[in-house]
Amino acid sequence: MKTLVLTLLILCGLTTAWAQTSSTGLRGTVKSAGGEMLPYAAIVVKGTANGTITNAEGRYEIGLAPGKYTIVFQFLGFQSVQKPVEVTTGFTTLDATLEEQAFRLAEVQTKAGNEDPAYTIMRRAIAKSRFHQLQVQRFKARVYTKSSFTVTDLPNLAEMAFRKQLKEAEKEANFKVGVPILNETVSEVSFTQPNTYRQRIIANRNSQGDFLSPSQFYNASFYSPTVAGAVSPLSPKAFAYYKFEYKGTYREQGPNGTPVEVSKIQVIPRQYGEGVFRGTIYIIENTWAIHSLQLETVNNIGISFTVRHICSPVQGVWMPTNQRYNGSGAYLGVKANGQYVRSLTFSEFVVNPAFVEDIEVADEKKGPPAQTLSKGDIKGKQFDELVKKQKEFSTKNLRQLVKEYEKQEKQARKNRKEDVTVVRDDSLVVDSLARKRSNVFWDSLRSVPLTTAEVRSYRKADSLGLVREVKAPNDTTKQDSTQNKKNPNKFALGQLLGGHTWRLTRRSSLIYTSPLARVEYNTVEGYSLEGALNLRYRAKVDSVNRFTQIPLGEWNIGGTGRYQFGRKQFVGYGLASYQYKTTRLALSGGRYLYQFNPDNPISPFLNTLTSLLFEQNFAKLYQKDFLNLTINVSPFKERLKLSGSLEYAERTELANYREDLKPWINWRNRTYTSNRPENAEVVTTAFPTHQAVVLSLTASARLGATQYTIRNGRRIARRDNDSPLLTVNYRKGISGIAGSDVDYDFLQASISHSFETGIRSRLNYQLSAGTFFNDRALYFPDFKHFAGNQFFFQQGDVVSSFRLLPYYQYSTAQRFAEGHVLAEFRKFLITQLTVVRLIGLKENLFVHYLYTPTSKNYAEVGYGLDGLIPQVLPFFRVEVISQWQDGNYNGLGFRIGTTLKFGR
Predict the structure, then answer these.
(1) Helices 452-474 and 163-173, axial angle in degrees (round to 10)
(2) Which of 102, 131, 156 delimits the end of a domain?
(3) Which residues constitute the domain of residue 571?
(4) Span 450-477, mean pLDDT?
(5) What letter does residue 207 receive in the DSSP assignment?
(6) Which of 230, 324, 662, 778 is the most exposed place for a label (fewest CB within 10 A)?
(7) Could you give the percent of the chain with pLDDT greater than 70?
(8) What is the pLDDT of residue 594?
(9) Torsion 605-594-632-777 (CA) sign
(10) Residues 66 and 140 in one domain
């Protein structure tokens, strides 16, 4: 009770405090000369870090203490307007009317055969882009964001299938097709060079209930080489992807009353589509900083995004204080659009001391500077010292200067014992009162006034919430239902059928997987049901905040049971594991059925479909009674991954459980095959029941420095690490221990690599080789198997999987070499057409090769088209593959594929 009272007092106190700070200020409208309201126009209090933006109706409101101010009104494509005003008591009304921007052409005009003036402007802006990024040493700001997401259309099938649920969602959660979902967030953010970003959410509100909506655009900078995976017009590679056209220049008041010249540059992609922008960017003359921009791009599933930034000077640095993002498109048949606006108000802003002095940039293609520096003149020199001696640099020299500065800063961080492999260090903390703020609090805090429609939406959401609160005490049926939803530990019959996780204590959970979730069929077991029960206990948890918990020690103990209706047997295994940070120890044992290839070339789910519908039983299984001890460690800050296992097993060959098996569809030209795989290297793959003790050791490491990000204290290796991955595996069949009948030594090594060859284009390869240098005693489960495929549907890793190779035909007990190459193209054949790229289709070429003593240099050469059904099923692809052996053509095959994985 005391805690509740204290919380209410704090809430009331904060509300009063905020209301007091916003009791005076300005409000008004911004419109064009034609009388049209200008949505999301920027309002800046000159000489301060204060500012806001108008809402969708062109209205604004900003809290200011009594005094005299100069207010700057900005809108993309319109002339900025400055107005003096005095704030006394209450809110003063100050409206603004903006005229469309009038451009004049520069003295140097584009003539036939001459280069467009846009190119010299962009060369200077590109050369100085990293300078502008490094200019900001640190800042603190209050950020107001508002987003809306509207589902505009649902597929007819979805509306028919979920009509009841949609009506309940409209009644209970204020969701309806065509009605926007609103979300507002107020955050306190801070940034420190080179890579630390902190965010604390102090208020969050949603028209359908409280939820958080972090945005990928928080840290987007068009000074970076890429923005959300697309090439920035200020990237060093920009000229390979864009053409530029000069559209004119205008003048406006800059910081400290100094006029600035702003040039309008049209950004024209050489081939529009995924990975590039089109639109307009405004560049400030002499400083070559971004003044504003409006750019559009499209992602890989055909969703288009429009980005608008308006920058304002903060201590001489032009910062994107007003940001707006729009997105629209369709995915899986669902059509939607979204809008996101962001407004920053800086409370602290520190310029990097080394970048206080501005630099003039000379375009050496137009005329070199008075003095050009060599690499020796720059190496080892301090950035600010060189700038003091020489104010003007060529674009090449400036890039060299910045690289030398970053090199020295990186070494200084190493000397301070900082981890230079961390390229991002982000954290998100949510204030405990963030989702409990009152309307009075929001009215005092909100930077952008609500529109009439938004006010209506919030009122409806609030009234629905009130109705639910009033009904709950009296409506026992709904009360029980609500309590059951809120109390996941309460037992219900449906949990036995669908599975459930019971939270036993703050650190322990009981996880139940229903047998109905794993209904499968194969010709060895017949139909089978599989269920599992697992107890998880987190021995120690490092809580960064209530949304992020890092387990430092975790125990798991449980078992999996499987009933085989065809064999009328029960099999299963138990598992106990302990994980501490990056080290995991696991002990398992029991009786279970496994595919001969431990990588499961065909999933149980897919094999169920092929067996029942197409009379093709591809999965070949054997029984293993086993005891296995496995340990995985990742030392040296996860730069190296080591895995070791020791297993004792009794392995038994199995046959189909019946000879007269019948599928659902009886194909005239097909029949179920034996469970004994066919192989070209041995006369028969049959084996007697035997014991095997097998030791397996695996080590993998990147051949380059691994980079990491830190999110809320958790260290995560970057997935886009483009250094090659080397993996070595040694497997030993140990004889003479526990009656083991195997005796062999197998060693293999592989190297895999994936790197960009252009925007949205990649080259992927994997090369492997290995040999049995001792093969005194081994059986078919010990052979080296390969990722084959014999079904028209291809799943799994698109790089390392064969498309037409029989699953076990070339499995070997001798030696092998295989290679896989996949080249992905943003623009190749049909993707030369812009309309094809815009709907998200992507082409690729691939080659797969296998050598074993019997494979006859087996090879596949193929062409693939990703995005088989654009915007509906974008994760499917279609492929055509030619098959070769010893250089001879063996036929053509077709595959429909996906990277999604089904089953285990």
Answers:
(1) 100
(2) 102
(3) 492-515+525-537+552-580
(4) 55
(5) B
(6) 662
(7) 83
(8) 97
(9) negative
(10) no
Fill in the DSSP letter of residue 831.
Answer: G
pLDDT in tens, 317-358: 898 888 888 888 876 667 888 888 888 888 889 998 888 777
Q: Are 289 and 313 in contact (CB under 8 A)?
A: no
**153 in Cβ contact with 334 (< 8 Å):** yes
Output the CA–CA distances (angstroms, integers) from residue 358 to 151, 288, 332, 424, 619, in the order listed.
48, 11, 50, 27, 68
* 30 has a pLDDT exceeding 80: yes
- The 3-state DSSP class for residue 5 equals helix
Residue 447 counted as domain residue: no
* Per-residue pLDDT tens over the stretch 715-748: 777 766 678 999 999 999 999 898 999 999 999 9
DSSP state of 658: -
Q: Residues 437, 445: contact at Cβ < 8 Å?
A: yes
Cis ω before 225 (30° cut-off from 0): no
CA distance 643 to 697: 6
Q: For the chain, how long is the longest CA-to-CA vector?
A: 98
Please give the radius of gyration of the chain, using alpha carbons only, rounded to the nearest integer: 33
Per the model's pLDDT, the better-predicted residue between 173 and 3 turns out to be 173
Which residue bears the tokens 């005094």? Answer: 67
The verdict on residue 90 lying in a domain is yes
Instruction: Give pLDDT, residue 194.
Output: 87
Please report how the helices 117-127 and 395-415 are oriented relative to each other, as an axis angle in degrees rounded to 10.
20
CA 120 to chain CA centroid, Å, is 35
CA distance linking residue 346 with residue 190, whole number of Å: 10
Final residue belonging to a domain, choices 56, 77, 102: 102
Residue 111 lies in a domain: no
Q: Look at residues 355, 318, 385, 305 and name the one whose alpha carbon lies nearest to residue 74.
A: 318
Helix, strand, or coil here: 438? coil
**Per residue in 162-214, pLDDT tens?**
555 555 555 555 556 777 778 888 888 999 988 888 888 888 877 654 444 43
Rounded-to-integer distance, Cα 392 and Cα 372, Å: 9
Distance CA 319, CA 42 (A): 13
Burial call 30-43: b when 16+ CB within 10 Å, e when fewer: bbbeeeeebbbbbb
Distance CA(501)–CA(503), nearest Å, equals 6
Give residue 763's identity as a one-letter amino acid code. Answer: L
Task: Return the pLDDT at 897.
Answer: 80
What 3-state class would DSSP assign to 284? strand
The residues facing 540 across adjacent strands are: 553
pTM (two decimals): 0.75
Do residues 250 and 385 both lie within one domain? Answer: no
Bridge partners of 711, per DSSP, are 426, 714
Please, which residues have CB within 8 angstroms of residue 157's CB and are 6 or more apart in sequence? 333
**CATH number of the domain enclosing 662:** 2.40.160
Total tally of structural domains belonging to the chain:
6
Tens digits of per-residue pLDDT, 464-498? Answer: 444 444 444 444 444 444 444 456 566 677 778 88
